[in-house]
Amino acid sequence: MTLFDDETTRRANRKQQFDDNFTRAIQKAFMEDLKGFLKRKSHRLLPFEEVKEKLEIWFARDLGIQNIPIDSIVGSEGRYRAFTRSFMPLQEDLRDRWKKIDQVRESRQDLPPVELYKVSNAYFVKDGHHRISVARVKGNKYIEARVYEYQCDVPLDKETDLEKLAIQENYHRFLKETGLNKSRPDHNLQMTRLGGYSILMEHIENHKYYLEKKEKKDVTFYDAAASWFDRVYSPLAEVIRSNRIMKQFPHRTETDFYVWVVKYGRKLRQKLIKDAPVYYNPDDDNPTDAVEAYAKKYGSIFRKIIGAFRRFFGLVKY
What we know:
By secondary structure, the protein is an alpha/beta fold. It has 11 helices and 6 strands. It has helices at 7-39, 48-55, 95-106, 129-137, 162-178, 180-183, 196-215, 221-242, 254-272, 287-298, 301-312, and strands spanning 46-47, 58-69, 73-76, 114-119, 122-127, 142-151.
């Protein structure tokens, strides 16, 4: 029997173990930050206040108590600088509270549910940051939470970071300005690059001009957007789907490809038709040729390898 193997020593060892658990967690947070810097991908939580402002979300309902996947929690209300995306602690002043939660869990005492905001398929912490952090360190996949849902017209998920949030903000503004969130509620116009929605707005403006010239009357922007979606975008998207082109570009979306194909189709048209008009209307051409030509040019095995390399090092994020 060990000379100093008494209750006091055991308590001291347990206390030291809780200290060590926090130290390892904060060290892991440092490594996550370093990895994010090297890969140019932030490992920080999203600020809920900024999400509310950018996406103009509104409270909908209390969903009650649920078991929520911890890795779907992407942000925080007020404490987004205190933890990494995987809820490793970033600040030394979190130690005492973190250790107390760890000790309560170790003693198998019940902890109250955390409180989360749900926005699409992503969650933001209202209360319970330390409980989530300790649960994550202990290897838990789910946590009990009271969930309050906010309505949002664009998708968010566990992959959403600040750059993707900026894209979603543009998506929200695009839907609001075109009215497509109401006139075509089954739309799916997700893009993966900033600047893409300004190109779609230009396409709709051109389509509006085309309609007014053809019908010899004024057309509202909302009506032009709905017509563009039905007569220009959807047929080309259907060609993209039927050719299964997106299998060659798994990190992009149909709407990304629509923009690129229209731009590539314009180049083909200008090569084939001398003095082609400045305005290009996709209705005038057979989109299949442009889709196949673009896929052949940019879907080669060499470009796939380069694309995989760029995605691995964070040069292509979505």
